[in-house]
């Protein structure tokens, strides 16, 4: 589902955030990406949804080689992906329903299908009763649930999450993780960058550790492996 082959990412300031990374993530896997700040985790994640382009090497997602992808093809790639951010990135002037529906409206789905699918995913994340509320009327955990619903409403093959529990209290973080586990159980591949040691050590999945732009550890059922 996700392949990187000898990927290098060098920024204009000389920082090498990926230094020859090769990885293979299969369909339906749940993978944590861990490592100290500045290790290259965010770059690793951004390469997967073409926020960043590799300096050299190949990034292949769901059969599409991102290294050769033209800019006009990026929307086609992102229809295969769902992306969840630490800071939610909801549209403040749209209510819960509209924020989730927007992801389908931009790809011109049938309005009847949009309503059905939006209500299904809001039910999955436990927010069916808050469809008319706006982001500023929701708690942080509820906003993240909306963000997750938006990321999966187009039934993506891969969900990429960048510190999705970073702004949430511990109890809410566990609730969010339960939703990710449910999504994964339905066959969606999940790649999650996180600093949350307790979650990684409790919900054991594949752990990829990055330091200095290199994969230094790749363990199935691994632990977080860092102090602090």
From TrEMBL:
Pfam family, one: ABC_tran
Main location: membrane
Entry GO MF terms: ATP binding; ATP hydrolysis activity; transmembrane transporter activity
Gene Ontology biological-process entries: cell division
Membrane topology recorded in Swiss-Prot or TrEMBL: Peripheral membrane protein
Residue intervals of the ABC transporter domain: 2-227
Location(s) in or outside the cell: Cell membrane
Gene Ontology terms: cellular component: plasma membrane
InterPro entries: AAA+_ATPase, ABC_transporter-like_ATP-bd, ABC_transporter-like_CS, ABC_transpr_LolD-like, Cell_div_FtsE, P-loop_NTPase
Record carries keyword Lyase: no
Record key words, sorted: ATP-binding, Cell cycle, Cell division, Cell membrane, Membrane, Nucleotide-binding, Transport
PROSITE patterns noted in UniProt: ABC_TRANSPORTER_1, ABC_TRANSPORTER_2
Record keyword Cell cycle present: yes
Family: Belongs to the ABC transporter superfamily.
NCBIfam families, sorted: FtsE
Subunit text: Homodimer. Forms a membrane-associated complex with FtsX.
Its biological purpose: Part of the ABC transporter FtsEX involved in cellular division.
Name this polypeptide is given: Cell division ATP-binding protein FtsE
Protein species of origin: Ureibacillus sinduriensis BLB-1 = JCM 15800
Lineage of the species this protein comes from: Bacteria, Bacillati, Bacillota, Bacilli, Bacillales
Gene that this sequence comes from: ftsE
